[in-house]
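Re: the 367-residue chain
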Amino acid sequence: MAKTIYIAGLGLIGASMALGIKRDHPDYEILGYNRSQASRDIALKEGMIDRATDDFASFAPLADIIILSLPIKQTITFIMELANLDLKEGVIISDAGSTKSAIVDAAEQYLTGKPVRFVGAHPMAGSHKTGAASADVNLFENAYYIFTPSSLTSPDALEEMKDLLSGLHARFIEIDAKEHDRVTSQISHFPHILASSLMEQTAVYAQEHEMARRFAAGGFRDMTRIAESEPGMWTSILLSNRETILDRIEDFKERLDEVGQAINKGDEEQIWNFFNQAREQRQAMEIHKRGGVDSSYDLYVDVPDEENVILRILELLRGTSLVNIHINEENREDIHGILQISFKNAQDLERAEHLITENTDYTVVIK
């Protein structure tokens, strides 16, 4: 039976979600809300949605499922608005917020007693690109799509959401909202604070030590990449998850003090253990498996500094979808660099490893 789906927010996430829904459910009608006309026009022109509006309340009563793909504050505001609208009985309301406790609490407060079902959710996928123009049907492929069930979530609602979103090819998982916020504060929110702090510190330091800008490469580049993230979104995330993030900051200060004391004392064994434990812990984590924010399958090729070497490798990989590619020179003075190629799935990674190994004598490593 065909359903009517209403997506509020036609940015990268909402528009990509619409494409994924249409892939498996071409008979579903998808309605879209967006404040700016540009994204509405793109979504209509590209066939992501069937009808669009800039009046959120106008389409809500028509929907069987409503997905709020909006900033956290606006999501909460629209939940309050939905509580006062004449919606279809049993309508499912869901969201795509990066923090969950505040949104789930708002739903419990304003929707309890209403003939609706609420499913908190967080698709852990993204890009440095924004807007409907950047929509990608494969954005969520193999990424975690997290559900945070509450008293307003029935088992059948979860199954309906999984069926609706089957075309996203995501990995569905359920977790408590508060635990979600604790986990993401450590592996997502706090790293953004670190990256931006390191960037700020280096910018100030480079005012007196200009070569710091020129030598910044390799590890520095990788550690600070996420400092280019959209500031409005991250301000909202931090303020909606304050207590947990402040706890992570205090914990990190203590760890910095410990290694600082070891350096001050010249404690070679403690410093060695500090680096060795970090290395072993990273190797033990599932950090290289697709399923988290901006994670991917990475392949490293030890390439000589020769003309057309990268073109040769890319020619071998013709027809394979790449997520990213860059050279890690690490400021080394030898003749080799490390070509890092990122893929969206294990199949493409394995295919690339086979093609490069069979057709070149370059060293290929999967981490």
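Confidence is low (pLDDT under 50) at residues 290-294, 330-336.
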